[in-house]
Specification:
By secondary structure, the chain is of the alpha+beta class. It has 2 domains: 76 residues, Nucleic acid-binding proteins (OB fold (Dihydrolipoamide Acetyltransferase, E2P)); 41 residues, no CATH class. Helices cover 28% and strands 25% of the residues.
């Protein structure tokens, strides 16, 4: 097991400060309450339960072999590395030929570029004084 490795496991216990996860190979790790999800977590039981299968990132391994896990960082990593969907169902319709796929790609790309451009334009000039 190495740092930043994505591992799967089963929640075996929950405390006020975190959740214990049984990992493959007979090892176990702990997800601190701050590593459950983005934002403030008042009660871990609102997010995960004993018996849930979870995917987490290894964020620490101490000298005693204790493994620190993060569900939050794993989810962020998956979101960054997931390919953007081009079709509503995730796969192209069977009757879609290459030319139609390229038209769809160009349309989606143009929409995304327009969104980015609008974002930059809306930030332009904020907090500045008018020109004389």
């Amino acid at each position: 097991m190495v740092l930043e490795e994505i591992v799967k496991g089963k929640v075996t216990g929950i405390t006020k400060f975190g959740a214990f996860v049984s990992l493959e190979g007979g090892k176990s790790g702990m997800v601190h309450i701050s590593e459950i999800t983005e934002g403030f977590v008042k009660d871990i039981n609102d997010h995960i339960h004993v018996g849930d299968e979870v995917e987490a990132m290894v964020i620490s391994i101490d000298d005693n072999g204790k493994i620190g896990l993060s569900i939050k960082k794993c989810a962020a990593f998956r979101a960054r590395t997931a390919p953007p969907p081009m079709f509503d169902e995730g796969v192209p319709p069977a009757d879609t030929d290459f030319e139609n796929m390229m038209k769809r790609f160009k349309s989606v790309s143009n929409d995304k570029q327009a969104d980015i451009k609008r974002g930059f334009e809306s930030k332009r000039g904020t907090g500045k004084r008018g020109r004389r």
